[in-house]
Every structure is written in structure tokens, then in C-alpha cells.
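Sanity check

After download, print the first record. It should look like this:
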Amino acid sequence: MKKNFYLFLLSSLILVGCAEEAVIEPDIDPKLKFIGTWAVKEEITGQATQNYSSIIVADSSNTSKINIGNIYNLGAGAKLSALVAGNTLDISSQSITGISITGTGSYAGTSFILNYTANDGSETINVKATYTK
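Expected C-alpha cells:
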């Protein structure tokens, strides 16, 4: 009986020693794909397409957010924050130079699209902005 127990124990140890180790993937910050300098193509129904650049940086006060510069082509100082969750962005309502902006974005491949509204108090404009590197 004792001999059987030791054989079982030895067999168990051999099997455990041969088990495949799980590979642990490092955590990759989802904000990294959004950070950098982007070429923006902005489309508004009934208006000419605008092309401009935008710089996106990590938000220093919130590890889940980024700051998008030159949103709506309002200038380098016009920045808003967006919450990053995987490949999506959420822009809560924020006022920049008197214009209220809110919207969402989605990253795919090497670009992302922001769909947002810009409201200056007299009208709401729907914007589709494609960001490419």
C-alpha cells in the first residue's frame, strides 16, 4: 500500500513538472494607440471638408483619459479630454471657446473616427473626423 502511494506521488510530481506553463501577456495601455500627431479629415454635411493636424497626449490627471488638441480645428490650445476604453473613446460634454462638444470614437487599424456634435448655442453641428497617422 505504501509502495502504491509513493508511485502515485512520484507520477503526480512528474506530470506537474511537465505541465505547460501559462504565458502571461503584459498589460498594454489602450491609450498608447491614440497618442501622437494625427492628420484629421473633418466632414460636416453641406460644408467643404477640412484637413488639419491634431496632437493627442495622455491626460496627466487621469490614467484612463487622453487630451485631444485642436479639436474641431479650434487651434492648438483647444483641448478636450476623452475617456479611453479598449478601442473606444467617450467625450463627455465639454465647452471649448464657447462651443459645447460631446461624442464617441472608435479605433481600427491605424486610424480612428470621432463622431461628435459641436453646439455654439445657436445650432448643433454633427461632425465626422477621421484621424490617421
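If your output differs, re-run the checksum step. Summary of this record's structure: The chain has one domain: 30-132.
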